Amino acid sequence: MSHLLHIDSSIQGDASVSRRLTAYAAQRWVENHPGGTVTYRDLAADPIPHFDAVSGLARNVPAEQHTPAQAESFALSRRLVEEIKAADTVLLGLPLYNYGAPSIVKSWVDHIVAAGLSFDPTTGAGLLGDTEFVVLESQGGGYGPGTPRHGWDHAGNWIVHGVSPTGLVPRIIRAELTMAPVNPAMAGLIPLHEKSFADALAEIDRLWAAADLTA
């Protein structure tokens, strides 16, 4: 039976474009995987603790040397990695905040990059490469070639490298200029935003169009 892990991270609630994208993608996944199951994780509502001096070294210390705080932190890493291993597809909503990924997404990535859990400590080989990883990114502005802030997107580019030790390979689908409908100074860019959003939905539609409907 197919299984989906659906992860949101936006703090915008119903106003979030990335949540609209992940909800649409999750619906399309379910439609194309009859009998499939879904696990949902909301990093904004239930954030993963950031690394600190008390527990952050848990993934670098042998288990038998763990303090209680480190043991608890490592157990969380194990649960997060097992969520991924149990899934055929992971959907991650990734809004762009101050030109980077939300810190709660960074914390999730920090926890899943763990020797013995997501990669082989001897060979360095990633252990999660069989899982499809779809990242749905929303950008308030536009950062593509030819734009004044080309290259200022440090979320989509970062996550490719951030999860690389695990073997996950993100497929990134972007909706740009999401601030255009709410920022009067960007009103002239609304048609470009609408096209970008429609293009993102169309790309989502193509993801599982050829899925085995008997799965």
- The level of helicity is 25-40%
Oligomer: single chain
Q: How many strands in all?
A: 5
Uncertain regions: pLDDT < 50 for 5+ in a row? none
What does the largest sheet look like?
A: 5 strands, parallel
Descriptive overview:
The structure is a single chain. This protein has a 5-stranded parallel beta sheet, with helices on both faces. The protein has helices at 17-32, 68-85, 103-112, 156-162, 190-207; strands at 3-8, 37-42, 89-95, 132-138, 170-175. Helix 1 (17-32) runs parallel beside helix 5 (190-207). The longest helix is centred in the middle third of the chain and has 18 residues, at 68-85. Helix 3 links the parallel strand 3 and strand 4 (132-138). The radius of gyration is 18 Å and the shape is globular. By secondary structure, the chain is of the alpha/beta class. It is built from 5 helices and 5 strands. It has a single domain, classed as Rossmann fold (3-Layer(aba) Sandwich), CATH 3.40.50.360.
Secondary-structure blueprint:
Blueprint: E1 3-8, H1 17-32, E2 37-42, H2 68-85, E3 89-95, H3 103-112, E4 132-138, H4 156-162, E5 170-175, H5 190-207
Parallel strand pairs: 1-2, 1-3, 3-4, 4-5
Helix pairs in contact: 1-5
